Amino acid sequence: MQKEQGFKALPLRVSSASTANHYVYVKQHSIRNFDETKPPDRTLFVLNVPPYATEDSLKHSFSPAGKVEAVILQNNNESPNDGFKRAYVVFDKRESLLKALKLESLNPLSSDSAPLKAGIEKWTEEYNASICSPKDLQNKINRFMASYDKRENQKKTNKTETTDDEGWTLVTKRGRNPGVARKESVGEKLNEKLKKGSKKKELKNFYTFQIRESKMKNIVELRKNFEEAKKKVSLMKQARKFRPY
């Protein structure tokens, strides 16, 4: 098998009936920073993984080397749009990794126990899986509406104002600030404030003729002030005249 930049090329077929080989490139995984999910002494780094490959199918392909603990699939950083991926195949033992590096061939991706679906069959299945069934949709709607009704009822409860027998609104202790204690001294202070406020709110010039009379008085007062201002201006002008003798 060919080797390039430390990688070894291995043929990979889709199924046992397929005659076309797709090549993947493998080598032992090595990293600068340790990652517990990809231990270097048990992880095989695989490039050029076809887009239709799955974790289960790769486990089956590399099973001749030993038990595969996990497969981590990722998109290629260099060419993320071509669909091909890279994989980290983690074996349960170091010996299995060493054996995988010596493999000359791999199991097909598809097997009788775990058949691999590709092409139209795969796309059809993915499309059908993306459509929510009527039952699941109804369950989602029911959960949403139950949550919505609960929030609305809570809002109504928080805004509810209780009233006494005479129709007066009772102040409750809901909200951020607690209510004022109903003491006799507090009641007297409130009554005094209400009396003072009522005096300030006494209506003035309630009738139309009172408003008209008030306007006339204001006009007369303005005219009087205007005439007095004219006299003052005239006296000031006379005082400014130049008198040499």
From TrEMBL:
An example Gene Ontology biological process: rRNA processing
Q: Is Transferase one of the keywords?
A: no
Record protein name field: RRM domain-containing protein
**Which InterPro entries does the UniProt entry name for this protein?**
Nucleotide-bd_a/b_plait_sf (IPR012677), RBD_domain_sf (IPR035979), RRM_dom (IPR000504), RRM_Rrp7 (IPR040447), RRP7 (IPR040446), RRP7_C (IPR024326)
Give start-end ranges for the coiled-coil region(s). 212-239
| Family as reported in the entry's similarity comment | Belongs to the RRP7 family.
RRM domain residues: 42-123
State the SUPFAM superfamilies in the record: RNA-binding domain, RBD (SSF54928)
From the Swiss-Prot or TrEMBL record, what is one GO molecular function term? Answer: RNA binding
The taxonomic lineage of its organism, from the top, reads: Eukaryota, Metazoa, Ecdysozoa, Arthropoda, Hexapoda
Keywords of the record, alphabetical order, are:
Coiled coil, RNA-binding
What Gene Ontology terms describe where this protein resides (cellular component)?
Answer: CURI complex; UTP-C complex
The record's annotation in Pfam families points to: RRM_Rrp7 (PF17799), RRP7 (PF12923)
